[in-house]
Design goal:
The complex is a heterodimer of chains A (about 900) and B (about 425). Chain A has about 900 residues and is an alpha+beta fold. The relative contact order of chain A is 0.03. Chain B has a nine-stranded mixed β-sheet, with no helix packed on it. Chain B has a five-stranded antiparallel β-sheet with strand order 2-1-5-4-3, sandwiched between helices. Chain B has a four-stranded antiparallel β-sheet with strand order 14-15-20-17, with no helix packed on it. Classes of the chains: A alpha+beta (about 900), B alpha+beta (about 425). Chain B: Pfam families: Adap_comp_sub, Clat_adaptor_s.
Chain lengths: ~900, ~425
């Protein structure tokens, strides 16, 4: 219980709180609170004026009740009254109540703002501080609107007290964070930057938070802060521990300020001015030196403060990435922490090392710690630290130590924590591929990987093995031998069976010479696993069997027997059944030549970025991948795959390196996918092409309707709304960003005129583009829309047909039966008529047909055709140059599910185009 | 079956813990405390499932009784048992309070051993229990072998609720019809829902093994007799008989006989017990009518006038009448004027409580109150909770009448006429509310 002093303490409040705490049950508490609320209500009723003390007391009680979780719906007025009191305690309670309880849309906000304004303009520093704190605590947009103009003035005014300046800086920071558009620094910028020179350390600390935040948004305006920050930093760093008196924390001079300064500097590139840079390097050196000095105190606070500065300095060094000397020193100092007692320090050291490893200057230095890191991976008790160790191993890996690192990671995988296994597997797979000199080593590694952690090996990993084995002649035999041996284990993982099935199916002949792995032995080995596998694997195995028939004709009868068995040919799974039936027929009917052609060895896969890498990036989310990693992938990729037949040059792999979730490995326009000749397991391997070429089905959907979604993939959704009148039309295109990352340099080009679109689409946002369309003459090709934008650094390119078709400019014409036939006869020239007979794509529903024809834009004429089943339409196409009358007749045949469509119009191109368009619709 | 039984005080401290089965671990005790007693939001369901363990709880004042099981038990049975357990404890040491439980914990463990065996409920009849679980030290030397064997034969015998050889000088029998009437009425006086739940409680001091037969104005029985050609006028019998919606009996009642003849015959336990429970929903006599009048005068004032009318024979007297008029949450002051009784604004309960000691039938009384309100910036309107009422009247609002209670004892020499019988009707309010 709080001590109750006679003068200022509120006895009533203390009694009330102790009552509540002594309540035996919740009910009792509610009763006590109800009683108190009734009491306060009767006091606030306004019969007689309350003095400030009791007002304060009751407001305080209300606040307490509110904090206990009960609703308070009165007393706001009294709290606002307290604001105008002259006593500090009363004012303080008033502000407290308001910052806790008043919501922004309250009617009282005007009164509150007024009170705050009075306090801000008063000369009393404590009152000003209270007001500033209140603004920052509420921090609403309204507050920003009311005070964003005033606070900078207080902040830079010469006569403001230091404590008020501190509050003002932090308050402004808060407002800037909530509504950056309202806080305009403009004229104050340079004066705010000069706060870094302030005598008072507190002011500097507060101001630097503000400046850091502001400079992140517009770095150019605050560029001048760099030199000031450097000089400030050097003054602190070079000062003796006693110089700064109040701001020395356990013998470390101003640790918070130093950290903030270093962080501010990380917003900018290295200073260009040589003197400044020299001074900064000197500072950083001093910091590194100081960290080496023996500790001045055994207290943990001392080392914490020192290390905080050190780590911040190291991240600055890494950020600059230009001082080899410093980078190596930093690396060495971090190395000492790798074996520190403190777990947190080890974690931080590993994390910083990870970034150091990616710098070319310090990569070698990091590599010297490999033993320690491996040791950490094995012995560390905290899983998050082990994760960091694994990350660091991944980062420091290069050709020289790849074998060692991969071996260590593999051996660790057996005992690794479940949460990091999948990521570890991916990393091992990538490293093995990236630094493979000897492909037999690669195959061994991956097969080991599947054996050790089969459950965590994703599809991409084994796809990749197969791609590589197929592309490299020299390892095929070895791979076949190794998988054969691996499959002999009594229990092997399904992924292993998949790889085994595929490789033996392709290259089983390479090891068939050995009697221990004769064709029949191979087959029996594979088939012994068949019944333990899931449906997709079984399908793959069936394909392997048919390939066996091709490779080893002597196995034909055995395999046909297997295919013919009821469990295959009558399998309840459609896919398996189909494969069994088809393969059986294929093997019994086709001649050996045909078989050999159909079941030829798979052609090499086109070179592309590793799908595994894409997967790892996806796991970490876009942006989490360091640029360096990408570059490295490219650099190393060139050397690695140099021997092999590379499909494209390096630019193809660059296109593929989009971290887009589609994980398409070739980019958009990389040619048609290499599909397997037979419906073999090859289909499993082909990476999905999400959109190739121009969208045609999206386009056709819009022939009979005007609104809808034109295009959609994982990144972008394009919606369309359009309206047409005579020969004019207007189309609204809505580009919706489906990701959380913004698209930059978003441009659309149309082979007709269009208003430019906003170049930037925020994550999750939508922008609109309006296109005005005028039909000059009849046409058959739709306008093309080309969309380009950058997503996460990668350029995306998209070409779409705009759904503008000739029928959009139809003007419906009503006419009677004989008029129609008269005109029909007039348009009897053979080139004026276009006719098409086609099969129905959709069910023949009269209502749906009617709706579609109406959507086409023509008038649907009832009671014209003698056969009521038939549909007859008439309309005039309006173009600027001329008007083209068109007549249409659609004759459905329900039995045959066929349509006959006849279009006659005064212009032959129009009839033809209409006929083409419509034929796809029914 | 019940795996364990725990009793907690209001803080969630365990007072009694008895585990009957191994599948209930020690952590079950904490699970209930954490998830139910100390739950952030009040748990309203009496059955809580935590990690495949079911907790059935009842609360008596500040004491929680929780039965725990891992099996799929009959929840109604478990609650019946818990209620019975409360009755037994009340019969042994009075009110169930923390202090009483602490003082009698040995006794409670003894009782728990007796009335639950491996989680299966056993004889929980207080009368029978009191013969062998006593509070007065060890009576071993007084108990003869004969008595002991008698207890055994009684507990294991067919009529477990009554021992043989009871003798009274005066054969007396008390019968209480206790009813609680529940009502929800619209402001206009329309009955929205009403039902009576009643109990017939008996206290019997009869010698030997008497056979009793209880008769009441049950509609089915009366109609059957009417068909038989009695002289009752049809209109009169229709008015006087009541339709019982459902009823349950004490285990002593022969249910087969009730099913076939709808007659209630039984060998009563000695002492006090509840013979039957029933519920009716038709033709209920509502003892009081509440007429509310609420007028809002501006934003800061509310005028409330409530009239209550008693609606029964003028010769009867209702007692312990209490009307509870809820006040808005922003009430800042209340002035009350009433002719009869005492009225008071209770801020802690947000209500005006008006108490009248006695009131005869066919009278009316009124109260008027001025409520001052504090203007708030909350736009929410006051929800106007209903006005509730409590009372006690000396008749059965359901219209139930005891027609007869006959006692036959063939072996001993007394007849029905020699038994002194007392019948009493008490009607109480259950949830008796009128919307305003």
């Amino acid at each position: 219980m709080p001590a109750v002093s006679k003068g200022d303490g509120m006895r009533g409040l203390a009694v009330f709180i102790s009552d509540i705490r002594n309540c035996k049950s919740k009910e009792a508490e509610i009763k006590r609170i109800n009683k108190e609320l009734a009491n306060i209500r009767s006091k606030f009723k306004g019969d007689k004026a309350l003095d400030g003390y009791s007002k304060k007391k009751y407001v305080c009680k209300l606040l307490f009740i509110f904090l206990l979780g009960h609703d308070i719906d009165f007393g706001h007025m009294e709290a606002v009254n307290l604001l105008s009191s002259n006593k500090y305690t009363e004012k303080q309670i008033g502000y407290l109540f308001i910052s806790v309880l008043v919501n922004s849309n309250s009617e009282l906000i005007r009164l509150i703002n007024n009170a705050i304004k009075n306090d801000l303009s008063s000369r009393n520093p404590t009152f000003m501080c209270l007001a500033l704190h209140c603004i920052a605590n509420v921090g609403s947009r309204e507050m920003a609107e009311a005070f964003a103009g005033e606070i900078p003035r207080i902040l830079v005014a010469g006569d403001t007290m230091d404590s008020v300046k501190q509050s003002a800086a932090l308050c402004l920071l808060r407002l800037y964070k909530t509504s950056p558009d309202l806080v305009l620094m403009g004229e104050w910028t340079s004066r705010v930057v000069h706060l870094l020179n302030d005598q008072h350390m507190g002011v500097v600390t507060a101001a630097i938070s503000l400046i850091t935040c502001l400079s992140q948004k517009n770095p150019d305006e605050f560029k001048t802060c760099v030199s000031l920050a450097v000089s400030r930093l050097s003054r602190i760093v070079s000062s003796a521990s006693t110089d700064l008196q109040d701001y020395t924390y356990y013998f470390v001079p101003a640790p918070w300020l130093s950290c903030k300064l270093l962080r501010l500097l990380q917003c900018y590139p290295p200073p260009e001015d040589g003197a400044v840079k020299g001074r900064l390097v000197e500072c950083l050196e001093t910091i590194l030196n100081k960290a080496q000095e023996p500790p001045k105190s055994k207290k943990v606070q001392h080392s914490n403060a020192k290390n905080a500065i050190l780590f911040e300095a190291i991240s600055l060094i890494i950020h600059y990435d230009s001082e080899p000397n410093l980078l190596v020193r930093a690396c060495n100092q971090l190395g000492q922490f790798l074996q520190h007692r403190e777990t947190n320090l080890r974690y931080l050291a590993l994390e910083s090392m990870c970034t150091l490893a990616s710098s070319e200057f310090s990569h070698e230095a990091v590599k010297t710690h490999i033993e320690t890191v491996i040791n950490a991976l094995k012995t560390e008790r905290d899983v998050s630290v082990r994760q960091r160790a694994a990350d660091l191993l991944y980062a420091m890996c290069d050709r020289s130590n790849a074998k060692q690192i991969v071996a260590e990671m593999l051996s660790y995988l057996e005992t690794a924590d479940y949460s990091i296994r999948e990521e570890m597997v991916l990393k091992v797979a990538i490293l093995a591929e990236k630094y493979a000199v000897d492909y037999s080593w690669y195959v061994d590694t991956i097969l080991n990987l599947i054996r050790i952690a089969g459950d965590y090996v994703s599809e991409e990993v084994w796809y990749r093995v197969i791609q590589i084995v197929i592309n490299r002649d020299d390892v095929q035999g070895y791979a076949a031998k190794t998988v054969f041996e691996a499959l002999q284990a009594p229990a092997c993982h399904e992924n292993m069976v998949k790889v085994g099935g595929y490789i033996l199916g392709e290259f089983g002949n390479l090891i068939a010479g050995d009697p221990r792995s004769s064709p029949l032995v191979q087959f029996n080995l594979l088939h012994s696993k068949f019944h333990l596998c899931s449906v997709p694997t079984r399908a793959l195995l069936l394909s392997a069997y048919i390939k066996f028939i091709n490779l080893f004709p002597e196995t034909k009868s055995t395999i046909q027997e297997v295919l013919r068995s009821d469990s295959q040919i009558r399998n309840s799974d459609v896919e398996l059944q189909q494969r069994a039936v088809e393969y059986l027929k294929l093997s019994s009917i086709a001649s050996t030549d045909v078989l050999a052609t159909v079941l030829e060895e798979m052609p090499p896969f086109p070179e592309r970025e590793s799908s595994i890498l894409a997967k790892l990036k996806k796991k970490k989310g876009p942006g989490a991948v360091s640029v360096n990693e990408l570059e490295e992938g490219k650099r190393e990729g060139g050397e690695l795959n140099g021997g092999g037949e590379r499909g494209g040059d390096s630019s193809t792999s660059a296109v593929g390196s989009t971290p887009s979730p589609s994980a398409d490995l070739l980019g958009l326009r990389a040619g048609p996918p290499v599909t397997a000749a037979a419906p073999s397991a090859g289909s499993l391997l082909v990476d999905v092409f999400s959109e190739a070429g121009v969208n045609d089905d999206g386009f056709l959907r819009f022939v009979c309707k005007n609104n809808g979604v034109l295009f959609e993939n994982q990144l972008l959704q394009i919606g369309i709304k359009s309206e047409y009148r005579q020969n004019l039309g207007r189309m609204y295109l809505f580009y919706g960003n489906k990701t959380s990352v913004q698209f930059v340099t978003f441009t659309t080009t149309l082979n007709v005129q269009a208003k430019p679109v906003e170049p930037l689409i925020e994550g999750g946002a939508q922008v609109q583009q309006v296109i005005n369309i005028e039909c000059l003459t009849d046409f058959s090709d739709a306008p093309l829309l080309n969309i380009k934008f950058r997503y996460g650094g990668a350029l995306q390119n998209l070409t779409l047909k705009l759904p503008v078709t000739i029928n959009k400019f139809f003007q419906p014409t009503e006419m009677a039966s004989h008029d129609f036939f008269q005109r029909w006869k007039q348009l009897s020239l053979p080139q004026q008529e276009a006719q098409k007979i086609f099969k129905a794509n959709h069910a023949m529903d009269t209502e749906v047909l009617k709706a579609k024809l109406l959507g086409l834009g023509m008038a649907l004429l009832e009671n014209v055709d003698p056969n009521p089943e038939n549909f007859v339409c008439a309309g005039v196409i309006q173009t600027k140059a001329q008007q083209v009358g068109s007549l249409l007749r659609l004759e459905p045949n329900a039995q045959a599910q066929m349509y006959r469509l006849t279009v006659r119009s005064s212009k032959d191109t129009v009839s033809k185009r209409l006929c083409e368009l419509l034929a796809e619709q029914f | 079956m019940i795996g364990g039984l725990f009793i907690y005080n209001h803080k969630g401290e365990v007072l009694i813990s008895r585990v009957y089965r191994d599948d209930i671990g020690r952590n079950a005790v904490d699970a209930f405390r954490v998830n139910v007693i100390h739950a952030r939001q009040q748990v309203r369901s009496p059955v809580t499932n935590i990690a495949r363990t079911s907790f059935f709880h009842v609360k008596r004042s500040n004491i929680w009784l929780a039965a725990v099981t891992k099996q799929n038990v009959n929840a109604a049975m478990v609650f019946e048992f818990l209620y019975k357990m409360c009755d037994v404890m009340t019969a042994y040491f009075g009110k169930i309070s923390e202090e009483n439980i602490k003082n009698n914990f040995v006794l409670i463990y003894e009782l728990l051993d007796e009335i639950l065996d491996f989680g299966y409920p056993q004889n929980s009849e207080t009368g029978a229990l009191k013969t062998f679980i006593t509070q007065q030290g060890i009576k071993g030397q007084h108990q003869t072998k004969e008595e002991q064997s008698q207890i055994t034969s009684q507990v294991t015998g067919q009529i477990g609720w009554r021992r043989e050889g009871i003798k009274y000088r005066r054969n007396e029998l008390f019968l209480d019809v206790l009813e609680s009437v529940n009502l929800l009425m619209s402001p206009q006086g329309q009955v929205l829902s009403a039902h009576v739940s009643g109990r017939v409680v008996m206290k019997s001091y009869l010698s030997g093994m008497p056979e009793c037969k209880f008769g009441m104005n049950d509609k089915i029985v009366i109609d059957k007799q009417g068909k038989g050609g009695t002289t009752d006028e049809p209109g009169k019998s229709g008015k006087q008989s009541i339709a019982i919606d459902d009823c349950t009996f004490h285990q002593c009642v022969r249910l087969s006989k009730f099913d076939s003849e709808r007659s209630i015959s039984f060998i009563p336990p000695d002492g006090e017990y509840e013979l039957m429970r029933y519920r009716t929903t038709k033709d209920i006599i509502l003892p009081f009518r509440v007429i509310p009048l609420v007028r809002e005068v501006g934003r800061t004032k509310l005028e409330v006038k409530v009239v209550i009318k008693s609606n029964f024979k003028p010769s009867l007297l209702a007692q312990k009448i209490e009307v509870r008029i809820p006040t808005p949450l922003n009430t800042s002051g209340v002035q009350v004027i009433c002719m009869k009784g005492k009225a008071k604004y209770k801020a802690s309960e947000n209500a005006i409580v008006w108490k009248i000691k006695r009131m005869a039938g066919m009278k009316e009384s009124q109260i008027s109150a001025e409520i001052e309100l504090l203007p708030t910036n909350d736009k929410k309107k006051w929800a106007r909770p209903p006005i509730s009422m409590n009372f006690e009247v000396p008749f059965a609002p359901s219209g139930l009448k005891v027609r007869y209670l006959k006692v036959f004892e063939s072996k001993l020499n007394y007849s029905d006429h020699d038994v002194i019988k007392w019948v009493r009707y008490i009607g109480r309010s259950g949830i008796y509310e009128t919307r305003c």
